[in-house]
């Protein structure tokens, strides 16, 4: 017997139009595979006069109540941001309607309270599209890996950062040139701050962490670093040392605390995330039963994200989807400063400064594995000392950077990147 589901759609931007396209184009396929007949009853937009190819103008409205009170069974929230999106979702849940959202910013901020509301109202909250677009990582953590204690997850969660670093690696261009190309191709926003400074990936990591470990994480628990200070010279040095630079989000459970970070790392060429190119995303999950599993694919775009939204919609219609479990308690963020190798780049006035710098590092109990002095390619005087260390604490590295500046050994910006285990 065919089940009918009426959908109220809030927002008709790229993902919203993608959802309308998929529902219309694959209507027969969806019904054949799932036994569900989907019908969009009303669509909230800001501007009725804007042209939206493939969207029935009769469905459009600028009044939220005409979407929420139009007899729909499920509400899809795609307006983004915190407000009025949160109010729309809360009103929908309060009225006993299922909700599907792709709103990572809201879920990172207030996802636990929304899950509790959904559970109390015995309805479902689906959010597959909020992390990694078309990659079914939410469903994998919630269903496929339900019999596993998740020990660690790491991933490339931001397509903008990955595209920029890929172009810097393969085309040997500077950060600014790679960013302009990403913007020209639609892989970076006009204001890319949220992406290149690491905060978009941090929001996604918080969502995945709360789901993987079944507990709430404080909003400021993630240590965040971006990629804007990485130069083509750093990418080249990493290659010479046998690594590739990637922006990686990591959550690792240790006893009752979790260490959370989003930062550029040097990955060995053999690492499973090292080969993830351009705008693609990937998540590497370690469970106690399955070991390591890699999920990868398109992390953004109208159709990949719409596909994830649609999968939640169909699962909810089949009474299999969403997230209806009451969340657990709160998990503590680990403040431990574990030892790891580091790549250091000092910009110096004279290549002979390599001697004082290595001495300074040794004084701070940092053992040097490899070091090289690199002459400037112009008359700028911006010579470099590049160092690959043995395992050491981040505190020792930061102290060394501070000391080198105070001793007048730096003639420009320096950088310190961790090397992945």
Structure characterization notes:
The chain has 421 residues and is an alpha/beta fold. It is built from 14 helices and 17 strands. The strands form 2 sheets. Strands 7, 8, 9, 10, 11, 12, 13, 14, 15, 16 and 17 form an 11-stranded mixed β-sheet that branches. It has a 6-stranded parallel β-sheet with strand order 3-2-1-4-5-6, sandwiched between helices. A hairpin with an 8-residue loop joins β15 (368-374) and β16 (383-389). α4 packs parallel to α5 (104-120) and α7 (159-170) packs across α8 (175-184).
The tally of beta strands, per DSSP, is 17
Mean pLDDT: 92
Describe the oligomeric state of these chains in a short phrase. Answer: single chain
How large is the radius of gyration? 24 Å
Strand content: 25-35%
Number of helices: 14
Indicate the topology:
Elements: E1 3-10, H1 14-25, H2 27-34, E2 36-44, E3 60-61, H3 64-68, E4 74-77, H4 85-94, E5 98-101, H5 104-120, E6 125-126, H6 137-144, E7 150-156, H7 159-170, H8 175-184, H9 193-196, H10 199-213, E8 223-224, H11 232-241, E9 243-254, E10 257-268, E11 280-287, E12 291-298, H12 302-317, E13 332-333, E14 342-348, H13 354-363, E15 368-374, E16 383-389, H14 394-406, E17 415-419
Parallel strand pairs: 1-2, 1-4, 2-3, 4-5, 5-6, 8-10, 10-13, 10-17
Antiparallel strand pairs: 7-9, 7-11, 9-10, 11-12, 14-16, 14-17, 15-16
Helix pairs in contact: 1-12, 4-5, 5-10, 7-8
